[in-house]
Design brief:
The chain has about 260 residues and is an alpha/beta fold. It has one domain: NAD(P)-binding Rossmann-like Domain (Rossmann fold, 3-Layer(aba) Sandwich). Helix content is about 45%, strand content about 15%. It is built from eight helices and seven strands, in the order E-H-E-H-E-H-E-H-E-H-E-H-H-E-H. Strands 3-2-1-4-5-6-7 form a seven-stranded parallel sheet, sandwiched between helices. The longest helix has 27 residues. This is Oxidoreductase. One of its GO terms (molecular function) is oxidoreductase activity. Pfam families: adh_short. InterPro entries: NAD(P)-bd_dom_sf, Sc_DH/Rdtase_CS, SDR_fam.
Amino acid sequence: MAFPYKHVLLIGATSGIGRAMADRLAESGLKITAVGRRQERLDEFVRMHGEDKASSVAFDLADIKAIPGFVESVTKTFPDIDCVFLNAGFQRIYDMSDPAKFDLDQFQKEVSVNFNSFVALTHAFLPFLTSKNTPTGLVFTGSNISIVPAVPMPAYCASKAALNVFVLCLREQLSKTNVKVIEISPPLVQTEIHDYMGKEKGRGMGMPLGEFINAAHQGLLSGEDQIVVGSVGSPEVFNDILGKRRSAFDELAKMMRSYF
């Protein structure tokens, strides 16, 4: 099995892709510690899967200063965690052409939650993961629109683009350690992240959640480190961009290793 982990800590497990993936991983026999803001949904997840397979911790990753304490606590409580799955985030629309309507504070909060919190979590978890003498993993949920951005959602696209670059660099820097770095890149998926558009409209757009989870889970089992599901526009053009970009990155990384 190319996904060798036994206990996954999954952050953002109370809704959407995070909850569906937590369910799938638990159903496949893994132990899951679900993390999210909504205690009632965490409790429901544990009841559904049973305390032998599921546990939960309530935490709001928007509180970045609290992340080191959260990580210290959760790794002491669950020392057998061998994979951290970072999935949480939110999305809004911004009209930057009209400063009176452009909510800068909300924009910056979105970037912070979707990107800065992931960097802080990675920084806090790495000493724990690298200290183990068995394979460990860091899994990030990115987005296809990190490569081809969607005009109305600049904060979300920018945060996911930053995350994609961070993951590429992190993977290369950890290539000689026991930590495997995996990025899942979804297309537009039918989840509640789009409820701000109206529940019926928002959840009616994109790939059905179950279809996406099937594809992403298969990618995890196959051992891929970059799991791209769907595309933005033409699959041929999109995949060509991805392939050439990864090749260019690998070439530059090889050159940079000779200097640093």
